[in-house]
Amino acid sequence: MSSAQVDADRPGMPRAVGALRAQLRDPIQRRVVGVVLVGAALAGIVAFGLAGHGSVLHGLGVPTAALLPGLTVLSCLAEMTVVRLRHGEAVEELSLYEAALIIDVLLLPPRDALIAAAAGLVLASALQRRPVVKAVFNLGTYTAATAVLILIVHLLGGSPGELTAGVLVGVVVGTLAFTGVNLLCLAQILGVINKVSPWRIVRSEARLSAYMAVGTMVTGLTTTEIALHSPLLLPFMAMPALAVTYAYRAAAREADEHARSKCLLQLSHALAEREDVVRQFLVLVREAFGADLAVVVLENDDAALSVEGTDPTSLRHGPIPRHLAALGRIDGPVHLAEGLPGGLRRMVVVPVQGGGRRFGTAAFATRDRSRGWMTTGDVTLLASLASALAVAMRGAEHLDRLVDETSKLQAVVEQSAEGIMVIDGDGTVQVWSRALADITGVDAAEATGRPLAEVLDVPVEEERRLLMPVSVEQPKTVAELTARRRDGDQRRLRLAHSAVFTAGLLVRDVVVISDLTREYRTERLKSDFIAMVSHELRTPLTPIIGYVDLLRSRGERMTPQKRLDALNLIGDRAGHLSRLVEDLLLASRFGDNPDDVSLQVSEGTHDLDALATQAARDLGSQRVVLDLPPGPVPAHCDDGRALQVLANLIGNGLKYSAEDTEVTVGMRLDGTRVHVDVRDRGRGIPADQLAKVFDKFHRVEDPMTMSTSGTGLGLFIARRLARAMGGDVTVVSTLNSGSVFTLSLNRANAEPPAR
Ligand code: ADP
Q: How far is CA 69 from CA 103, 124, 442, in A?
């Protein structure tokens, strides 16, 4: 009642012998030829060996001339009554052909039985337009198996005309042998196709084949007996067969539906993930609908993507099939049955469109015409799946665009020289750009997810509320505050807030942060400078103006000595003013490049001892104590500049120490260098200011309070000049106990002078 058949599709049989040889190199073709030869040999044995035998059973009452064609038609119809049944991963095709064979064998003489069986099969193959190789293989297999069945039935049961025990034994053994031969032939081919040993196939299929053999035998035997003895009951005989067929079909459909649901579930996951959607669609839909070929042609693409049954998971790129190209744009499902290449019999083409976009067409084709392939419901489902693919592709496009936009936006945020941060409604940092990390010294990983107030250290209480100053009325505002970095450095920041509120609640605040520290410092420097210069100019100007007024109004009446004193004081203050102006000019000429200063210095060799003595004397203070070597100490220097430097160092010593303390000027010789140390017992300099006192305009005291006068230029100029002369000015100082400023120069004569 059933059979397992090969589902291999091969091109037509070769005609020429050379072509045959070439074909025989193909293992499948070789096995087909082998099976056909075995079938022919066994058929020959039956035809000649059992030539004299009549039919096993008699009494049908139908003339022999009508019986052969009648049973041939019956075999053909039985072969076409096919139910596809999933068996594990394979699909079995069950038919009533084998039950019809039992009838042929019992009611016809051996040779006629063989003819009816073979002719019925050929007729069914032709009607179903089966591929030639498949038809030939089936013919070979069934001829061999039927010949074995006929031989066994006739050898064990003979042809007694009625059902005897011998006939029964013959039919049972013959059916088992038939099934065995059928399975062996099938295993040969399936073994090659699936690349496994034929015995494995025999083992896995044996149980199903045995069940089928029992069904085949029982159906055939019972039908024959009823036909012989109660032909009126024959139509009733068809009932169980039809019921079984129906049950098989229902089971097969259920198994198909189950397998299809599994594929479609996988497909829905694949489409939802939006990855590799076209390939997944082709692979899974092809499998779900049992197609041999699945193709997608995308709009504006000159290649087609396809998946074939022979390699069901890999995507191929190839030219667009002619018949699909010819089809052009379609709006709904289209069926094609003519002019299909590669042995394809039917093709269903559906548009891939959805979500307002058209992406192309998808086509699914089969080589088998016999199956009830693609019902109207299937085509509707296929069309829906194709639009689901379109929606997924559209989604993937959106996602790509979104990712693209996001990365562009990220690049803008990351590459912006201004710091950018995004804060959510709770004041938690969401985005923290690289520039902001540079400005604040807090990196993005540390900042994100934390409240802004914890991330930014704002030392001034009133400025802290400026971290989140936005409100519904004022979503855009600019605030300035000073934040402290971990290294203690303070930064002046401008925060430009731009907030989004929804239903009165803060959703997001995008803040662009500029580092104003430089400008801020420059601004402070400028105002400090103006304050300092005006103070420094006014200090000597006040006595000058006062004494000039005095000389003008009462000069005639003043004693010559008093007049002289007034003029000396005016001269002294004017000299101070002139030095001040010279310092300003000199400092303005020095750029950041220390070499600029060399233009202001001439080379020469001078006695540093004498210069130090003169500098101390010029200052005219009793507090300066000289502790110098007796002889000259020649050094490489510009005498005027060295004098200027020493005067500044000694002057500072006097200025920044108490009136009752001394300032000592000493000298040390050290290899090729000579050092002049100016030591005071004054206020000293805080350690963190030691390096800064040499900066332009830097003063340790607050310029606004001005406890001592000064420009903050002296040490800056002194160090620049000393370096230009090949030396340096350095300082060692202890707060509240005093400082030692040292001018170091190269000695002209490295020999230590006699002391
Ligand atoms: P000025 O004395 O005009 O302010 P300088 O460049 O000579 O400028 O000095 C810079 C700063 O260094 C001074 O303002 C002062 O605060 C500090 N300073 C310089 N010399 C001494 C010193 N001997 N003792 C303490 N502080 C000093």
A: 13, 14, 96
CA distance 74 to 96: 10
Burial (0-12, 13-18, 19+ Cβ within 10 Å), 297? buried
Question: pLDDT-derived band of residue 92, with 50, 70 and 90 as boundaries?
Answer: low
Find the 459 Cα to ligand 1 centroid distance in Å.
Answer: 29
Whole-angstrom distance, CA of residue 178 vs CA of residue 2: 12
Place of tokens 């996988």: 266
Q: Is 173 exposed, middle or buried (0-12, 13-18, 19+ CB in 10 A)?
A: middle
How many CB atoms within 10 Å of residue 485? 14
> What's the 3-state SS for 280-342?
HHHHHHHHHCCCCEEEEEECCCCEEEEEECCEEEEEEEEECCHHHHHHCCCCCCEEECCCCCC
| Pocket, ligand 1, Cβ cutoff 6 A | 648, 652-653, 656, 680, 682-685, 693, 698-701, 710-716, 739
Whole-structure pTM value: 0.48
The DSSP letter of residue 400 is H
pLDDT, tens only, 650-674: 999 999 999 999 999 999 999 899 9
Pairwise CA distance, residues 755 & 749, whole Å:
15
Helix, coil or strand: residue 493: strand
Contact 729, 645 (CB under 8 A): yes
User: How many whole angstroms separate alpha carbon 643 and alpha carbon 638?
Assistant: 8
pLDDT category, 428, cuts 50, 70, 90?
very high
What is the residue-wise DSSP string for 510-554?
Answer: EEEEEE-HHHHHHHHHHHHHHHHHHHHHHHHHHHHHHHHHHHHHH
What number does the ligand 1 atom closest to the CA of 701 have?
Answer: 16
Select from 246, 241, 235 the least CA-distant residue to 219: 241
Q: Which atom of ligand 1 is nearest to the CA of 710?
A: 3
- Name which of 212-226, 465-479, 613-627 the model is least confident about: 212-226
Distances (CA, A) of 618 to 493, 539, 622, 624: 49, 21, 11, 11
Atom of ligand 1 nearest to the CA of 712: 8
Region of 342 on the Ramachandran plot (φ > 0 left; ψ -120 to 50 alpha; else beta): left
| 400: its two tokens | 């790509």
Average pLDDT rounded to a whole number, residues 232-238: 78
Candidates 167, 166, 28; CA nearest to 106 is 167
- Kind and range of the H or E run holding 349: strand 346-354
From CA 219, how far away is CA 556, in angstroms rounded?
A: 159
**CA 294/CA 387 separation, integer angstroms:** 16
Mean pLDDT of 201-227: 85
More confidently predicted of 44 and 532: 44
User: In this structure, are residues 551 and 558 in contact, taking their beta carbons and an 8 Å threshold?
Assistant: yes
Mutate to test the pocket of ligand 1, among 680, 715, 716 (most ligand atoms within 8 A of CB): 715
- Torsion sign over Cα 195, 199, 204, 205: positive
pLDDT score of 715 more than 90: yes
The rounded distance, in Å, linking the Cα atoms of 331 and 702 is 85
pLDDT at residue number 655 = 93
Q: In the numeric block, which tokens belong to residue 163?
A: 């059902």
CB atoms near residue 271 (< 10 Å): 21
